[in-house]
Write a structure and sequence with these properties.
Blueprint (H helix, E strand, L loop, with lengths): L20 H8 L2 H12 L6 E5 L5 H9 L4 E6 L2 H14 L4 E4 L14 E3 L9 H9 L1
Parallel strand pairs: 1-2, 1-4, 2-3
Length: 137
């Protein structure tokens, strides 16, 4: 069960802005361009199992699933509000994607259980202590 007492930096810095996240990112960043470039760099191939670490509202998660046939895609994020948006987006798209709630530092998956791990726009959402934890691993 996720630890809901641990703090994190929500999308756009404030929980009340999370519902605006997709629109703000779409209009203020070249999101499609850099997420497509990330997908190319990841070299995801049929049969791969892919983890989107810090999936947020699942824009990259959905792009990966739509782009490569025959893959399993799992998104994980700590923010329950972002995951609610992600689940609605995935449901509307009809994609077969699993979304889990967990911290990036305490993942509920066995070591070496993914062929690819991708991440975008998440590291600035980690607390300072979590950033230090990831650097020291």
């Amino acid at each position: 069960m996720p630890d809901r007492t641990v703090s994190y930096v929500p999308a756009l810095g404030f929980r009340w802005l999370t519902s605006l996240y997709d629109s703000v990112v779409q209009w203020t960043m070249r999101e499609r361009t850099f997420k497509r470039a990330l997908l190319v760099q990841a070299s995801v191939a049929p049969g791969h199992r892919v983890l989107d670490l810090g999936c947020g509202t699942a824009t990259l998660t959905a792009l990966i699933k739509r782009s490569v046939a025959g893959i399993e895609v799992i998104g994980v994020d700590v923010d329950p509000q972002a995951l609610r948006i992600a689940r609605a987006k995935i449901e509307r798209s009809g994609l077969d994607v699993r979304l889990d709630q967990a911290r990036t530092s305490v993942l509920p998956y066995a070591d070496a259980s993914f062929d690819r791990v991708v991440s975008s726009l998440v590291f600035h959402h980690l607390t300072p202590s979590e950033k230090r934890l990831h650097v020291t691993r």
